Amino acid sequence: MSRATTVLTFCTTAIAAAGCGAGRVLAAGMTLLGAGLLLLARTDVGVLVPSSLCAAGIGCSFVSTTITATTAVDRADSGLVSGLVNTSFQVGGALGLAVLAAVADDPQGAFALAGGVALAGAAIALAVLVPRSIVRDGSRRVRRDGASSRRRAPGAAD
Predict the structure, then answer these.
(1) Complete edge-to-edge strand list for the sheet that includes strand 134-137
(2) Among 52, 61, 59, which residue's Cα sits nearest to residue 22?
(3) Residues near 49 by Cβ (< 8 Å), separated by ≥ 6?
(4) What is the H or E stretch that residue 135 is in?
(5) Which of 3, 28, 59, 100 has the fewest CB atoms below 10 angstroms from its CB?
(6) Model confidence over 61-95: pLDDT tens digits?
(7) Best CA proximity match to 147, nearest among 130, 157, 132, 158
(8) What is the rounded distance in angstroms from the CA atom of residue 85 to the CA atom of residue 65?
(9) For residue 149, how many other CB atoms are within 10 A of its CB?
């Protein structure tokens, strides 16, 4: 069930990011992930709903992070940036797991700590990425606050 949720979320996140901005989708994904992890910290809750929330949150977070990272770079560098993002996912996951294993005494404590970190990430995404989100409109870039700027062609003189 969790795999199907992740695949479905991967497929729909790009559409949602195009409509409301990758920063908002990232914040929503981190919130879903945090809620799922906090539910997993409870012993009286089953596994299906929290795991589905975590899977949806991971799908939203990974795709919107990649979109955010590769949007601001030249096409020639987008493969390099995408590789760096994916490497960061792998290294971050390994380090995060090591820190959680070292800090938390029990699995519930580890899930609660990870859920708190995910919710803090959602707050940071809302504070940093959402105000700076940019909607592309042809050759112009229009920011959410209404200001716009002309985009120069690569190699154009000042």
Answers:
(1) 134-137, 140-143, 148-150
(2) 61
(3) 36, 39
(4) strand 134-137
(5) 3
(6) 888 888 888 887 888 888 899 899 999 999 998 99
(7) 132
(8) 8
(9) 10
Residue-wise DSSP of 32-83: HHHHHHHHHH-SSS-SHHHHHHHHHHHHHHHHHHHHHHHHTS-HHHHHHHHH
Give CA separation, 129 vs 61, 68, 118, 133, 149, in Å: 13, 9, 15, 6, 19
Q: Around Cβ 95, how many Cβ atoms within 10 Å? A: 10
- Distance CA(129)–CA(8), nearest Å, equals 24
pLDDT in tens, 1-51: 667 777 788 778 888 888 888 888 889 999 999 999 999 998 787 888 899
Distance CA 69, CA 73 (A): 8
C-alpha 153/C-alpha 139 separation (Å) is 9
Give the model confidence (pLDDT) of 125-141 as tens digits: 888 877 665 444 444 44
CA–CA dist 61, 10 (Å, integer): 9
